[in-house]
Specification:
heterotrimer; A alpha+beta; B mainly alpha; C mainly alpha; A: alpha+beta; six-stranded mixed sheet; five-stranded antiparallel sheet; elongated; C: MetI-like fold; 13 helices; about 75% helix; globular
Chain lengths: ~350, ~300, ~270
């Protein structure tokens, strides 16, 4: 069993802190995705787990062993690099088998394992080639194959798909999911792409500024983002954010005004006070055209995607993105009114934290 | 499985654990093991001798008997003795030939041919022009001693074109021996500089020349404003290599003139050798050696500074 | 707009002229080498009766076979060791050290412009103290040290360009630093190592100052050093001297003609980086 535990893990480059105290529990066989904008510390965190970066403070456990001072090769981890990092002078066969060779695995065992990995990844015909003779997708397979043969407790992926074109990326995503299912190993996957995160992860860790913003299943993050950062990061197109303030509190009702519109919402007592600044978040897919909707503006831009229509609507002081099903009939410059279900709105306070909705 | 998450800048900053220092100490150990052999060889046969050179330079010592501390007297001698100053001057005169001829001719060829050195012609050219780089300098010295000899090819040519009065034993001539030695050095370095500059010019974007021509640039302008700046690094390399070759020359002079006639072609390298091993003035030889090293450094520094990529 | 055409002609003419100037000394030597012994030949004049036997005589007089062996022994003593330890140090400085050890690299680089003459006097006393004077080790050991600035500089520049990912992949694959060096880095560095080997071979084979100062017996010297002695002995017999010189420069020229491309590349990069 290979559980992975991080306890108040810190990382400083000189005086500059890049990981500011991360606590995390990863269960055996979980597929965990670290996601965040570039520079958020996600790759650093992964590399600390791999043992490629020193740990400035805290403790990392793999299984029941503290691995802070364990060499990377002894941690039972394998990593797939963004650049693949295949050895250019070795054939695919030797690339995949290099780790086994170093571990003095008998030749026949080695051969069996290499061929088994090649079979799983459908790259048996590539074994005699060198990396330079492979396409991007094939190199990717080799890199994964190299990880598989070592039968590690934990697989680490550092943005492995970012050098592939969009179509191939989709294929590899499916393949990785299948691989995870087949191997049942713990996998940690770093990406800046929230779509990859949503589709691959059992559990997503959203990082920003070296701090864990939220951990949860894809749908938890989508439905209940704990703060403005997560709300904006997860979901595509981005959630609309409308600044406003609390006008009045009446019993368990709150009246707020956003961009000229006045809304009355049921909220638990004490969650906001009169005069507070708030931000109202609504996902583009949650908006509907409704003649008596509270938000009205003019159509700025129309993008017909065939299956749905993306409309930019200009309100008094801000703009909204609206995604409507089907091929809507809109005219640029014409007025439009938008409505939404109360259950679909997210409210954030001045500290950018979510205000709890009525249950 | 529960997710227990708490993170934030408020958490205390932990102290460095001792075991981590152990890890980095191990990395330092590994690095030392890789670097040590080279460092030891370098220290034993370059740094220590250099230190000894400096130490000797402060002594009056014949290499056998007792050495006496001599202060900076040797340095004062190097910088005031008229013979030694002439010898240092000779080295700088050689720079004129070793550097200016190869760089000038190389630039002329490079800007005329502008990088069309592909194919068979290119291969033959490269092979021939690099020959002088491959043979020992001593062989170049012997070959040119013969070229400059009284019945050698140079005089033969002069006679053939009716300039018999110019013919002379070049390397024995008080006026012409030093230029003749300079020509030998130029011959050795010419091919290398030419090829470096020809290769360098191919890296200049040809559309720059086309743009300049549309802007009304004449060939001279193209050379001045595109070729020269574009070749700045290569020119710097050529100057560096040739200046060091001139200031630290030894082999060619030793073979072709032995420094004569008189001391007209003696260079510091040769004089160090003579002082230390023939005249047994180890202290003075060492002071000259240190001065030579410093002269090379201060001659090269501005070239490096001017031709460095300024970004 | 092909205004370049006349320029190309001028340039080709210039280059051909340069090539002639480059080759003339060799041809002049060849013609002199074929003149009858004891005569005083003319600069460039094909002798009526070419004395090819002069080369045989020169070969015997110069003891070329012993010289070749001596040079080869010195090259074998210097080049493999120098290349190996320079490669190790280059790797160590490029991949195993942080900026804190930049000074160490700078100390090596300081030696790049050092004229050998600056250390030749103390080297003599040092080699004498080691009891190595007049042996081939008097040339071999100092040369290894003297090549370190260039060798380390050269290999470090190469290793700096190797992606760091490869190092990390090797670490995760379970390689120790030494294994990574031998199995991953060195095979990848082959072109750089090849160039360094060529340059060090040439510099050793052609080394003159060290043999002249440190080794009396020409038979223990390099080719170039022996040539100096040969000239001292036979300087007045022009045909023999020219024949001997041509023989002595043949080995490197032959190797150069065979490996023309690698030599040219090495010499050019060597100049640029050195």
């Amino acid at each position: 069993m290979a559980e992975l535990t991080l306890r108040s893990v810190y990382k400083n480059y000189g005086e500059v802190p890049v990981i500011k105290g991360v606590d995390l529990d990863i269960g055996h066989g979980e597929f965990v995705v670290f996601v965040g904008p570039s520079g958020c510390g996600k790759s650093t965190l992964l590399r600390m787990i791999a043992g490629l970066e020193d740990i400035s403070g805290g403790e990392i456990r793999i299984g029941d062993r503290i691995v802070n001072d364990v060499e990377p090769r002894d941690r039972g981890v394998a990593m797939v690099f963004q650049s693949y990092a295949l050895y250019p002078h070795m054939t695919v066969y030797d690339n995949v088998g290099f780790g086994l060779k170093l571990a003095n695995t008998p030749k026949d065992v080695r051969d069996r394992k290499i061929r088994e990995a090649a079979r799983v990844l459908q790259m048996e015909h590539l074994l005699d080639r060198r990396p330079a003779q492979l396409s991007g997708g094939q190199r990717q397979r080799v890199a994964i194959g190299r990880a598989i043969v070592r039968q590690p407790d934990v697989f680490l992926f550092d943005e492995p798909l970012s050098n592939l074109d969009a179509a191939l990326r989709g294929d590899m995503r499916i393949e990785l999911a299948r691989l995870h299912h087949d191997l049942g190993a713990t996998m940690i996957y770093v990406t800046h792409d929230q779509v990859e995160a949503m589709t691959l992860g059992d559990k997503i860790v959203v990082l920003d500024g070296g701090i864990v913003q939220q951990v949860g299943s894809p749908l938890e993050l989508y439905n209940n983002p704990t703060n403005l950062f997560v709300a904006g990061f997860i979901g595509s197109p981005r959630m609309n954010m409308l600044p406003g303030h609390v006008d009045d509190l009446i019993d368990d009702q709150v009246r707020i005004s956003v961009d000229g519109a006045s809304l009355t919402l049921p909220l638990p007592f004490g969650s906001v006070s009169k005069g507070d600044s708030i931000t109202l978040g609504i996902r583009p897919h949650a908006l509907v055209v409704s003649p008596d909707g509270p938000l009205s503006g003019t159509v700025q831009l129309i993008e017909q995607l065939g299956n749905e229509t993306v409309v930019r609507v200009r309100l008094k002081a801000s703009e909204l993105t609206v995604v409507l099903p089907g091929q809507g009939n809109f005219v640029v410059g014409s007025p439009v009114s938008l409505g939404f279900a109360l259950a679909d709105i997210h409210l954030f306070n001045a500290d950018k934290k979510r205000v709890r909705r009525p249950s | 499985m529960t997710d227990t998450i708490s993170s934030g800048p408020g958490a205390p900053k932990p102290a460095l654990r001792p075991s981590q220092r152990r890890g980095s100490r191990k990395a330092t150990m590994t690095a030392s093991l890789f670097i040590a052999p080279a460092a030891i060889a370098y220290a034993a046969f370059v740094l220590v001798p250099l230190g000894m050179s400096f130490y000797y330079s402060l002594l009056r010592w014949d290499g056998i008997g007792e050495a006496r501390f001599h202060g900076l007297t040797n340095y004062i001698t190097v910088l005031t003795d008229s013979d030694l100053l002439q010898i240092i001057g000779n080295a700088f005169q050689l720079v004129l030939y070793f550097t200016i001829i190869p760089v000038g001719l190389g630039l002329a060829v490079a800007s005329a041919i502008r990088g069309q050195m592909a194919g068979r012609f290119g291969t033959v050219t490269r092979t021939v022009l690099f020959l002088p780089q491959v043979i020992p300098l001593v062989a170049a010295g012997i070959a040119w001693s013969w070229m400059f000899a009284s019945t050698g090819l140079v005089n033969q040519t002069l006679k053939a074109i009716g300039l018999s009065s110019w013919a002379r034993g070049w390397l024995g001539d008080f006026v012409w021996a030093l230029p003749a030695v300079g020509i030998i050095g130029a011959w050795v370095l010419l091919g290398l500089c030419t090829m470096l500059l020809v290769t360098g010019i191919t890296k200049i974007d040809t559309s720059l020349y086309e743009a300049a021509r549309l802007d009304g640039a004449r060939p001279w302008h193209e050379f001045r404003y595109i070729t020269l700046p574009g070749l700045r690094q290569e020119i710097g390399v050529c100057i560096t290599v040739t200046v060091i070759a001139a200031l630290a020359s030894f082999d060619i002079v030793y073979i072709s003139t032995q420094g004569g006639p008189g001391i007209t072609t003696t260079v510091p390298g040769l004089e160090i050798y003579r002082l230390a091993f023939a005249h047994r003035q180890v202290g003075l030889a060492s002071a000259l050696a240190i001065v030579l090293m410093v002269l090379v450094l201060i001659s090269i520094a501005p070239v490096q500074w001017f031709t460095r990529d300024k970004k | 707009m092909r205004t370049a055409a006349p320029n190309t002609l001028v340039a080709r003419g210039l280059i051909i002229l340069l090539m002639i100037v480059t080759l003339l000394p060799f041809l002049s030597m060849l013609s002199a080498a074929l003149a009858p012994q004891g005569t005083y030949p003319n600069g460039l004049q094909w002798p009526a009766d070419p004395q090819w036997g002069n080369f045989v005589k020169a070969f015997e007089v110069a003891k070329m076979d012993q010289l070749l062996l001596s040079s080869a022994l010195i090259v074998l003593g210097v080049v493999p060791v120098a290349v190996l330890i320079a490669t190790m140090a280059g790797y160590g400085l490029a991949k195993l050290t942080t900026n804190k050890y930049k000074w160490l690299y700078l100390v090596f680089v300081f030696g790049l412009t050092l004229p050998f003459e600056a250390v030749i006097t103390p080297l003599y006393y040092e080699v004498r103290a080691l009891g190595l004077l007049n042996t081939r080790f008097a040339i071999i050991l100092p040369l290894i040290g003297l090549y370190m600035p260039f060798g380390v500089y050269w290999m470090r520049a190469h290793f700096l360009n190797v992606p760091h990912d490869l190092t990390e992949a090797a670490q995760l694959d379970g390689a120790t630093r030494w294994k990574e060096f031998v199995l991953v880095q060195v095979p990848l560095a082959r072109p750089a190592i090849m160039s360094l080997t060529i340059l060090l071979f040439l510099w050793t084979w052609n080394q003159f100052l060290l043999p002249v100062v440190l080794v009396q017996d020409p038979m223990q010297r390099t080719m170039a050093g022996a040539l100096g002695a040969f000239q001292g002995q036979w300087g007045t017999d022009i045909p023999l001297l020219c024949a001997g010189s041509l023989l002595i420069l043949t080995p490197t020229v032959v190797l150069f003609l065979i490996f023309q491309r690698q030599f040219v590349a090495a010499l050019m990069q060597g100049a640029v980086k050195g």
